[in-house]
Amino acid sequence: MKLQIHSVHFKADQKLLDFIQTKANKLDTFHDRITSGEVYLRVSSDKEIQGSNKIVEIKLFIPGGSLFAKEQQPSFEAATDLCVEALKGQLKRANERQKEHTSSPKDALVPVEEDADADLE
Q1: Would you say 121 and 57 are in contact if contact means Cβ atoms under 8 Å apart?
Q2: Over 70: is that where the pLDDT of 112 sits?
Q3: CATH no. for residue 50?
Q4: Which of 18, 31, 37, 100 could lock onto 91 through a cystine, CB 3.0 to 4.6 A?
């Protein structure tokens, strides 16, 4: 999957970038038509949050829309893991919705027997 990774106001090392790419590539097993994705890495400067200052946002583009997950954790790796888990569930639901729309309408219809004695008045 083509993934653009943006680190905001810092330079991410190659090891982190490889980790994120590897985790994101595993999402291809849940949806085969992911076209691309964007990842934003941020460090929060919020003084009230002690320790959990790493923010990961992942947006995946699929035909017909996009999926998004955002997590804040003490490390980028932990936040990435949680984002990937959230996106995994979203991809499964997207597949189910796609299957519902592609199933033939004949399967959804149940034949109704008409009452021969009923007259239209």
Answers
A1: no
A2: no
A3: 3.30.160.100
A4: 31
